[in-house]
Design a protein that fits this description.
Helices cover about 65% and strands about 0% of the residues. It has about 325 residues and is an all-alpha fold.
Length: about 325
């Protein structure tokens, strides 16, 4: 029996999971390119990037709801459910442990895998509700943190709720509110989908879709390995371009102090306010774009100092 025909699997669902994984990998590649200072994209503030992140995470969690419905209508194989849950919990624990070591000030304590694990349990309570009820509840879960929050839920042990007033520092934070909402929406949509007698079992055999369906069948493994692979690849690219891998892995310095110091020194040397503002803005942008932060240290290598002087000459013009 082929993997796509095994009980509990529908090719179209594997394809949708694969597409979600592809979108996630592209988003994480963009994040990595920004972190390693290959590009200067505002992933945290740009509305387009924020919307993309929400849509990608929401699609994963909606597919969790769809998977629960399929598991329910196919006879509730508790052994399969428990094995899958154990794998997700183990993956979440691995992500927490790895990020606790690599980025202790922004480690992942309740990311998307943690949310999927909790949703896989809580979702059982909602499987037999009418689809309309789950749809309305899903929208309510999404809306609640927009309408109401409480400082009483700012305690570290309650951050998983998502209803506190202070968002924590974490590289992946998917709390129960609002992210259980897409799971309930997925449950509702799956019920309507099955009622329409559209099981989606015919999306098979096309060569372009095979890698995506394969990724969808192994979504947890792909999720866990794709980011280390991307980071390793970008480190190799950076080294090939002559960049120091340790410098790439260090967080980018805050440009604000450099901008202020540059402005003060420029005006003390007789420059006008507007002229100094333009010059210093050019210097900060150039230092950030060319990763010239090490050139600002007193013990910087002569070639870095030369590059900094070349940048200053360009900005002076």
């Amino acid at each position: 029996m082929t993997p796509s025909a095994r009980p509990g699997r529908l090719p179209v669902i594997d394809l949708l999971r694969g597409l979600a994984l592809l979108a996630m990998a592209l988003y994480h590649l963009s994040w990595d390119l920004t972190f390693f200072r290959f590009v200067d994209w505002d992933l945290q503030g740009d509305a387009g990037w924020i919307a993309a992140r929400y849509l990608i995470a929401g699609s994963f969690l909606a597919l969790v709801g769809v998977g629960l419905v399929l598991w329910d209508v196919q006879g509730r194989d508790w052994r399969r459910w428990a094995i899958r849950l154990a794998k997700v919990v183990a993956g979440a624990a691995a992500v927490t442990a790895a990020t606790r070591v690599a980025i202790p000030d922004q480690f992942i304590f309740f990311g998307i895998l943690h949310c999927i694990a909790v949703a896989s349990i809580l979702g059982l309570l909602f499987l037999r509700l009418p689809p309309t009820a789950n749809f309305v509840l899903g929208l309510a879960v999404i809306a609640l943190p927009i309408l109401w929050r409480s400082a009483l839920l700012d305690h570290p042990w309650l951050l998983w709720t998502g209803l506190g007033t202070q968002p924590p520092r974490s590289n992946d934070y998917e709390p129960l509110f609002p992210w259980f909402g897409p799971v309930l929406l997925g449950i509702a949509l799956a019920r309507w989908w099955l009622r329409a007698r559209a099981p989606g079992g015919t999306v098979d055999g096309d060569i372009p879709g095979r890698p995506l369906r394969w990724a969808g069948r192994h979504s947890l493994a792909v999720y866990l390995v794709h980011q280390p692979l991307l980071i390793g690849l970008l480190l190799l690219v950076g080294m090939a371009l002559g960049r120091d891998p340790w410098e790439m892995l260090s967080p980018a310095p805050d440009p604000a102090p450099l901008l202020i110091d540059c402005q003060v020194q420029c005006e003390q040397q007789g420059g006008g306010t507007e002229t100094c503002h333009a010059y210093c803005g050019c210097m900060v942008d150039g230092v950030r774009a060319q990763s010239l932060w090490p050139a600002l240290r007193p013990d910087a290598a002569p070639e870095l100092k030369d590059r900094l002087r070349d940048l200053a000459a360009v900005c002076s013009r």
